[in-house]
Amino acid sequence: MHIHILGICGTFMGGIAAIARQAGHRVTGCDANVYPPMSTQLEAQGIKLIEGFSPDQLLQFETMPDLFVIGNVVSRGNPLMEAILNQGLPYTSGPQWLGEQVLFGRHVLAVAGTHGKTTTSAMLTWILEFNGFKPGYLIGGVPLNFVVSARLGDSQYFVIEADEYDTAFFDKRSKFIHYRPRTALLNNLEFDHADIFADLHAIETQFHHLVRTVPSDGLLVVNGEEAALERVVARGAWAPVERFGQDQKNAWSLLTQEADGFIVVKDGKEMATVKWAPDAGVMGRHNQLNALAAIASANHIGITPADAARALAEFKNVKRRLETIGVENGITVYDDFAHHPTAIATTLDGLRRRVGDARILAVLEPRSNTMKLGIMKAQLPASLEAADMVYAYGASDGKESLGWDLSEVLAPLNSSKSDRAMAFIDLGALTAAVAKQARPGDHILVMSNGGFGGVHQKILTAIQQAQSENSQT
């Protein structure tokens, strides 16, 4: 079958493309931004890419594709989509294709939640892989224990990052409704995606729909510390529920929160000890809970906590999760995907636990749809409290611009004695300010869910140049 994918260069749709190719299909695709690394990864698998969404590309095929798979970046008015509709060509969404053609009949382990989906999915996938289960998987990032972010797999098991974002312009249900998991991990739940959800209750309803799809001989692994998830479960659960959390009232809990690991407790009994590898890139309470949830989920298919802990001793986190980009003059620059206030706070907490009293300079781009709408702006100062200095960037024009005053929002972090937080509309000015302030021993944490104009490397270069100039004077 020839499948043509619209919006192929996103992480999810790129994963769909890779899996379809591994399943033996001829795969082509198009996107508005065809560039590395996704473009090179796809082309290496024999997937032809076309720049843009011009309907003229339909004339390039010797025979028309058998099916068009539509990414949720595509909306009505897209010229190629309009041509597909006008010509009555067959189309479906990425999640529906995956659910029907890949996941059907398999034991799906789905990882859902506002935060930590990618890391937890990577942990769970690695636990299965380490223990010989040869799972298929689709992870919304690049897991460092694997060479690709998606794989068809050689067994009945499939781990998927289960996103609550909508499926496509013609299907406004959450993506995860299509996955029909037998093991469903509900990691946490907060208000997010303000561009498609009116409030937290609307998201809870989608999570309840997911719960409705879990068979009675399946399992719900639920964060017992999340009130929103308790409301979801209270609306009805037809599968057994196992809760996890710090408190030992939960079936799965933690005994310690040491920087390099923790003890797994099941029903009050110590079951295993997780010790992170020195280069694992995981730290903080949130990653301990992510790991605990992965252990509980793996236990459902017969992997003991002790065997899961052995796997996690060799786990390496996903790219862009407190990833060290470089070190110049004793100053370390990190990259992290954090963009929601809760994720920002937990990421800073994790880094603070690692570096102790050393200075942390937080460099932030609030560019998610929710942040641009200003829904979470009041929570931003508190989420940055653990940083010694804050440098925030908000473009002044274009589609990335904020609809609110960044300086005004960050003002509570400042005082009459000092300005801890500064806002910029010019990336060069931000880079220069950070490089001027940074000194040996500092840790610069860059947080954005986008490329942030390559500011990580720009900061490292500016620090290097400043060091060179100082040595010459």
TrEMBL record:
Q: Which NCBIfam families match?
A: mpl (TIGR01081)
**Binding residues annotated for ATP, in chain numbering:** 113-119
Q: What catalytic reaction does the record list?
A: UDP-N-acetyl-alpha-D-muramate + L-alanyl-gamma-D-glutamyl-meso-2,6-diaminopimelate + ATP = UDP-N-acetyl-alpha-D-muramoyl-L-alanyl-gamma-D-glutamyl-meso-2,6-diaminopimelate + ADP + phosphate + H(+)
Required cofactor(s):
Mg(2+)
Q: What class of enzyme is it?
A: ligase
Q: Which family does it belong to?
A: Belongs to the MurCDEF family. Mpl subfamily.
Domain Mur ligase C-terminal spans what residues? 320-450
Q: Which GO terms describe its biological process?
A: cell division; cell wall organization; peptidoglycan biosynthetic process; peptidoglycan turnover; regulation of cell shape
Q: Which UniProt keywords apply?
A: ATP-binding, Cell cycle, Cell division, Cell shape, Cell wall biogenesis/degradation, Ligase, Magnesium, Nucleotide-binding, Peptidoglycan synthesis
Domain Mur ligase central: from-to ranges: 111-298
| Listed name of the protein | UDP-N-acetylmuramate--L-alanyl-gamma-D-glutamyl-meso-2,6-diaminoheptandioate ligase
The EC code for this enzyme is 6.3.2.45
Q: Where is the Mur ligase N-terminal catalytic domain?
A: 2-100
The annotated pathway is: Cell wall biogenesis; peptidoglycan recycling
User: Could you tell me which HAMAP family the record lists for this protein?
Assistant: Mpl (MF_02020)
Role of this protein: Reutilizes the intact tripeptide L-alanyl-gamma-D-glutamyl-meso-diaminopimelate by linking it to UDP-N-acetylmuramate.
Entry's Gene Ontology molecular function annotations: ATP binding; UDP-N-acetylmuramate-L-alanyl-gamma-D-glutamyl-meso-2,6-diaminoheptanedioate ligase activity
